[in-house]
């Protein structure tokens, strides 16, 4: 079993400096949210630390790695390459970083699209990814940051709404899971 320090050192070698900085930002934000919502702090930090471990290489190579490891990709994922790192990351966390905690694996798996009826850890990672201190300022971020520590479900709904609006504006294809997350949390 690897501890946070050991995984952190591995990731520092694997990830680009900006991605590594973001990863640490998500890890500490997840720790703060775990404190606020009385969740396991170590577990939140582990999920935060590993959430983007699939992003150590290009999308094209991520697709190749999924083939190699026999990770099945949906039609949507093959069309929307930025989604793949979540699935690849969940696999790597389990197989390469020896995480045997299913809650952590799921939080990594759903950190990009979210999902309906998320666990507390899913929400913490989904939101920490969006609000960590190093994220560049975008409209609505201040409100999500505040709501993340006030009303977590409302924060998820705001985050999903912002993401969906941004994707529509960019005319990018929308993964059904991204849409379902918004639908579920906007009610
Ligand atoms: O890996 P990060 O950059 O830290 O963040 P992330 O894993 O949340 O992925 C970010 C990108 O994924 C962001 O630009 C929004 C995008 N995304 C999320 N859901 C969808 C999506 N992109 C498309 N095209 N379709 C989606 O449904
Ligand atoms: Fe990510
Ligand atoms: Fe995200
Ligand atoms: Fe991230």
Report strand %. under 5%
Straight-line distance between termini = 41 Å
Helix content estimate: 55-70%
N-to-C series of helices and strands: HHHHHHHHHHH
CATH class: Mainly Alpha
Could you tell me which ligands this complex binds, including any ions or cofactors? Answer: 2'-deoxyguanosine-5'-diphosphate, fe (iii) ion
Q: How big is the Rg?
A: 15 Å
Number of E-type strands: 0
CATH architecture: Orthogonal Bundle
**Assembly state (oligomeric):** single chain
Question: Which geometry do the CA atoms define?
Answer: globular
Overall pLDDT score: 97
Q: How many helices in DSSP terms?
A: 11
For the sheet with most strands, the description reads: none
List keywords for this structure.
single chain; 187 residues; mainly alpha; Hypothetical protein af1432; 67% helix; globular; binds 2'-deoxyguanosine-5'-diphosphate; binds fe (iii) ion
What do you see in this structure?
There is one protein chain. The protein has 187 residues and is mainly α. The chain contains eleven helices and no strands. The protein has helices spanning 4-14, 17-36, 41-50, 59-68, 75-79, 84-95, 102-109, 120-131, 141-148, 152-169, 176-186. Helix 1 packs parallel to helix 3 (41-50) and helix 10 (152-169) packs across helix 11. It starts with a helix and ends with a helix. The site of one fe (iii) ion has 5 residues, from helix 2.
């Amino acid at each position: 079993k690897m501890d946070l320090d050991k995984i952190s050192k591995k990731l520092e070698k694997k990830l680009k400096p900006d991605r590594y900085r973001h990863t640490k930002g998500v890890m500490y934000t997840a720790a703060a949210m775990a404190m606020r919502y009385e969740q396991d702090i170590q577990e939140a930090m582990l999920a935060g630390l590993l959430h983007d471990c699939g992003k150590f290489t290009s999308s094209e190579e991520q697709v190749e790695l999924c083939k190699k490891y026999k990770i099945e990709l949906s039609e949507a994922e093959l069309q929307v390459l930025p989604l793949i790192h979540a699935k690849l990351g969940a696999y790597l966390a389990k197989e390469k970083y020896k995480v045997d905690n299913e809650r952590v694996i799921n939080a990594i798996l759903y950190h990009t699209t979210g999902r309906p009826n998320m666990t507390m850890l899913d929400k913490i990672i989904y939101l920490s990814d969006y609000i960590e201190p190093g994220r560049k300022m975008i409209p609505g971020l201040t409100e999500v940051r505040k709501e993340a520590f006030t009303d977590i479900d409302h924060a998820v709904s705001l985050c999903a709404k912002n993401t969906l609006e941004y994707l529509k504006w960019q005319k990018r294809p929308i993964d059904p899971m991204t849409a379902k997350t918004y639908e579920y949390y906007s009610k």
